[in-house]
């Protein structure tokens, strides 16, 4: 049976995103990972992809929906190209903004599989470190080009909000058709 993908844990009626949680207390074991603060438990989560992106353009093919913008962005470290539909009523995006984007198969800090449903109750999760989270399904992987110019395309639907991630085929090798994924986003300071 198929579950519809949806924005987690916020709904479109939420006027704004909550502030990020404070860093762990000084008594915890922690380290820096790609410039971010992670506790020992959070390092157990295996992410499939993460990078810092900058928004290059909004709605490159024109505005289609009132509450959704399609952002065009490029990543810093892996030079990945991304088109992503974002509910801008919940999470406004602007040209020139930088944001961290992570793709993960689970939000559980111990790495155990995730149901894909939001379960309130105070349990810490990877989502606690991010402002915008969606759950969806990878529906297509393809390659274009030849030789050194081969690019892999990964297509994911988050309940109708779409993502195209294009770049190095070695990154696409981590993904599988029909895989359930979480996208997690958080804005970062401009360099």
Automatic annotation (TrEMBL):
Is this entry keyworded Nucleus? yes
GO CC field: RNA polymerase I complex; RNA polymerase II, core complex; RNA polymerase III complex; RNA polymerase V complex
Which keywords does this chain's UniProt record carry? Nucleus
Q: Where in the cell is it found?
A: Nucleus
The residue range of the signal peptide is: none
Top-level lineage group:
Eukaryota
Q: Which InterPro entries has this protein been placed in?
A: NA-bd_OB-fold, RPABC3
GO molecular function list: DNA-directed RNA polymerase activity
Q: Which SUPFAM superfamilies match?
A: Nucleic acid-binding proteins
Q: Where is this region: Disordered?
A: 1-31
- Extract the Gene3D superfamilies matched here: Nucleic acid-binding proteins
What's a BP term from Gene Ontology annotated to this protein?
DNA-templated transcription
The keyword Secreted appears for this protein = no
**Where in the sequence does UniProt note compositional bias of the Pro residues kind?**
15-25
Q: What is its main location?
A: nucleus
SMART domains attached to this UniProt entry: RPOL8c (SM00658)
- Please state which protein family the record places this protein in: Belongs to the eukaryotic RPB8 RNA polymerase subunit family.
Can you say what this protein is called? Nucleic acid-binding, OB-fold
* Organism (species): Cynara cardunculus var. scolymus
């Amino acid at each position: 049976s198929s579950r519809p993908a949806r924005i987690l844990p916020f709904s479109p009626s939420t006027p704004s995103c909550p502030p990020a949680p404070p860093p762990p207390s000084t008594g915890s074991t922690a380290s820096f990972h790609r410039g971010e603060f992670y506790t020992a438990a959070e390092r157990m989560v295996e992410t499939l992809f993460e990078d810092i992106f900058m928004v290059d353009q909004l709605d490159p093919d024109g505005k289609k929906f009132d509450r959704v913008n399609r952002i065009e962005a490029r990543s810093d470290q892996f030079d990945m190209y991304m088109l992503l539909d974002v509910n801008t009523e919940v999470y406004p995006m602007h040209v020139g903004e930088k944001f961290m984007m992570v793709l993960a198969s689970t939000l559980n800090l111990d790495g155990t599989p995730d149901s894909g449903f939001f379960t309130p109750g105070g349990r810490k999760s990877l989502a606690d470190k991010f402002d915008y989270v969606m759950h969806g399904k990878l529906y297509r992987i393809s390659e274009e080009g030849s030789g050194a110019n081969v690019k892999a395309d990964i297509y994911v639907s988050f309940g109708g909000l779409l993502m195209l991630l294009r770049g190095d085929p070695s990154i696409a090798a981590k993904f599988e058709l029909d895989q359930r994924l979480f996208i997690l986003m958080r804005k970062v300071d401009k360099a």
